Amino acid sequence: MEQPVVAFDNVGLRYGQGPEILHDISFALEPGSFQFLTGPSGAGKTTLLRLILLSLRPSRGLVRLFGLEASGIAGQDLTAVRRRMGVVFQDFRLLDHLTTYENVALPLRVQEREEASYRAEVMELLAWVGLGERAHALPPVLSGGEKQRAAIARALIARPELILADEPTGNVDPALARRLLRLFLELNRLGTSVLIATHDLALMDQVDARRLVLSDGQLHRYD
Amino acid sequence: MSGFRFLRRDRRPALVLSDPAASRSLLAIVAILTFLAALAAAGAEMVAASSREWRAALAREATIQLRPQAGRDIEADLARAASLARAAAGVAEARILSRADAEALLEPWLGRGLDLASLPVPRLVSLRLSADPAPDLRALERRLAAEIPGAGLDDHGAWRARLSGVANTILGAAAALMLVILAASGLAVAFATRGAMAGSRDAVDVLQLVGATDRFVARVLALRFLALAAAAAAAGAAAAALSLPLLGWIAALASGARGSEDGVLFGTVSVGLRAYLLILCVAAAVAAIAGLVSAATAKRFLRELRAG
Q1: CB pair distance less than 8 Å for A79 and B211
Q2: What is the pLDDT averaged over residues B22-46?
Q3: How does it sit in the membrane (chain B) (predicted)?
Q4: In a domain, B91, yes or no
Q5: Which of A91, A189, B225, B303 is a good FRET partner for B7, with 20 to 30 A between their CA atoms?
């Protein structure tokens, strides 16, 4: 049996000496699975995604990523693990001094690939998310929806094994939200594991997928 | 060329921007420090070159000194000393200095207008030595002592040793000054790198989250500061190179009317090719230090970020 892409076992998180904001979180994301992470605003969805990204470390419990225990992942291993994940941040986190094209190409550029080897690939993906005409625009002049799509394209460009998307349809109209959801479903059909954090019930109702619900610092699973 | 990919100009936009005002300040600081370090190095080289020249000139000369002795004919002793010297190997020329010449040499110490006729002024035979065959001054000294009472041979060793000491002190001081200035350049670049990283923390964070290694981020910053420091060092070095002839002119002006006499005694301060090469080396060292310090500072900053 294949190892889960992500496995949490009784994970708890507190900041400093403060109260525990996530407790006894246990779940696993299987390879090729599709799920939503939901819950009210402030329930800790983004925090949970940061734990998966290893930009936060748990106060207790075990986190395993691609079969590796998180406490032992550092340096080059951390970079290698992150290269297997694609992330869509809620606030996009596009670099304002780089064009849409440069932002989307970033994961390939940091792998020190020659631009000639990825230029066509990036342009194709930009066209696919409807940003072909905006490739040379800087993020400050993009609309919320365009930034959203650029952030999604950046998360997909290196063909990661796991996509983490934080409110990926929060800034787009329902039609575009459906289109983006189809994009994630298509990626999932091709074998990518997908975890979408959202509180958009209408979006979740469009897909028959597992829901992980965060509430009062605890996780409830609805398969 | 494929082994030097990092040297190829990357036409893609910079991944991490640095504050333009901070960059300009760093440019000015590194240019000024390079200028000072280059001047210190070139100045020390000019002193060392003059000292070498003077010591070489002194080594090519020796003096036989005859103290007047009661009951001896000093003119005959002088002629004998000169003939012994001419017969010795390695002596190209022996010239007897007249009493007037000997008295003139005392003038700088005793002043003009003194009647030295009653004083037992030592008389001199000036020797010009050849490089081949090498002179055996100790043998000549022994023969002089055996044949002419009161004769001595001065090979200027004491002067050469003293000059060498002074020149080495100046070189040591210049080397210390240069090290301090290079350290100051390194610190300025380290502060600038930390500033740039703190100011671009979000961008650095994004780079790491999309899979950049610490080495990659550090190299991005190091190349940026290397380029900046290289431009600043080139400007500082160019200013120093242009200043050298000016310094030589000031040195000549400062020695005033006695310049030609001092030139004979101490040699002249001249700007040689080695001084310009040293300036180039200082500029290269400043740029290299900037690149290394920037990369090390960036790596350290990234480690601190990870440690939280």
Answers
A1: yes
A2: 88
A3: Multi-pass membrane protein
A4: yes
A5: B303
Residues B126 and B194 reside in one and the same domain = no
Between B156-160, B248-252, B256-260, the lowest mean confidence (pLDDT) is in B256-260
Residue after which a domain boundary falls, among B149, B182, B212: B149
Q: Is the pTM of this model over 0.90?
A: no
In this complex, do B15 and A53 lie within 8 Å of one another by their Cβ atoms?
A: no
A53 CB neighbours in chain B (<8 A) are 209
Residue B206 has its nearest CB partner, among A83, A93, A111, at A93
A95 neighbourhood in chain B, CB within 8 Å: 15, 203, 206
pLDDT of B277 over the 80 cut: yes
The whole-angstrom separation of Cα B181 and Cα B2 is: 36
Q: Which of B207, B209, B221, B302 to mutate to test the interface with A (most CBs of A within 10 A)?
A: B209
- Whether residue B3 lies inside any domain: the answer is no
Mean pLDDT of chain B: 82
Of the listed ranges A21-30, A60-69, A70-79, B183-192, the least confidently predicted one is A70-79
Please identify, among B117, B149, B181, the residue that sits at the C-terminal boundary of a domain.
B149
B301 and B275 together in one domain: yes
